[in-house]
Design goal:
By secondary structure, this protein is α+β, with helices and mostly antiparallel strands. Helices cover 61% and strands 7% of the residues. Helix 3 crosses helix 8 and helix 7 packs across helix 8. About 6% of the residues have low confidence.
Amino acid sequence: MAQKPLTIGGQAIIEGVMMRGPNGYAMSVRRADGSIRTESTPHHPLTVRKPWLNLPILRGAVGLVEMMTIGMKALEFSAQEAERGEAAKEAAAKGLDLPHDDSPEKPISKWALALTLTFSLVVGLVMFNVLPNLATAFIAFLTGTGDRVLLEEHHPIVYNLISGVIRLIIIVGYIWAISLMNDVKRLFQYHGAEHKVVSAFESGKELTVAHAQSFTTLHPRCGTTFIALTMMVAIFVFAFFAYALMWVWPEFGNIPFWPRKAILILGHIAVMPLVAGVCFEVLRLGGRYRNNLFLKAIITPGYWFQRLTTSNPDDSMVEVAIRSLESALALPVPALAEATVKGVAPTRSDEMPEEAAAVG
């Protein structure tokens, strides 16, 4: 049987790149003295450990949460390295000799990680769902009177189109604002380095700086493309939810405004895993069939977004991304006995779960 092509995922971190391979992930960071610190971690995706979670659409929501968890761990690692670099700079300025300490920092506790992840999800849901919906309602009441007020339950498609535009303005404004920060500018360059190296690997080219630099900073499986696609899909899923709610509950439109609005917003939040799952499947197909005109048309807005979150990296950044990818690929396949004891099927390099291939 012909092997499936191995795809790789990753994420830009502070002065470095995290790459995720079939048997785990690696994080490489450029230190203040120019050296590269790399740490590799074996990892089996949850969809491998629990095959029933690998069902279409469901696997997308599961993979998104898992990638966020790994991403936070990677950011913690890079932040610790940045702190060490600052300490070394201060010591050097005072004429002191402070050698690098390669001992691992105390990892973030599971409770702290859960709280951080929960807080991030809450902030994202408020920005992505609550704020645009309430802003649309506010505009509707300002511009309409009586029966002319635009209500979601009566005109769900128009209402969610307006909400979608507001959502777009919020997200683009946020990305533009943070892009003015020097540290974020460098983060976006490492984002570009990650894409270039992944593209070079997936093309079968030798992993060299020169080969990677010949590729574009855009990639069809990028998380930025996922955000753009999610905004489009959400418009129709949210509209369908309002239609369905009015169909099963005809008296819904007669209850007071604020309880009605709360039910609609909570409904939007409840269907977000469905939105994420659908978008994941589309991106998965887009990465596999890059020449399909229909899929290219759907993913193209994501490329526009990527131009905001990626920049051309210098050679030293590409070198870090290559080091991270090589380290991720070097992680050994677990022994059959060990995998069986843990209830995990051993993973071959051609069996990498697709959610592990989400590019940051």
